[in-house]
Amino acid sequence: MAFGCTTDLQSPGALVAWLQPLSPSLIALDASNIHDDVVAAVQAEAALPVVIVNLHQVQKFAGAIGLLAKTDAFHAAVIAHFAAVRPTAGP
Q: For residue 90, what pLDDT is reported?
């Protein structure tokens, strides 16, 4: 499932409005865009389960499991796989 938007101030709110009815279990961002921290903050404020993953770790993970992203859709799938199996920080 894909959602496209611009990087103006209204777009993070539009993304939240699109995501909330889907009830996602986890939203992973790779923080490769300058606005990703704003997008993540808006999602967290809306109580959506968002995590920013380290792009270098994702690339190492992809190489370790033999997957090298060639398209945006494939890259997104690798990020989702990484986010699903990555260790989480504890208290």
A: 43
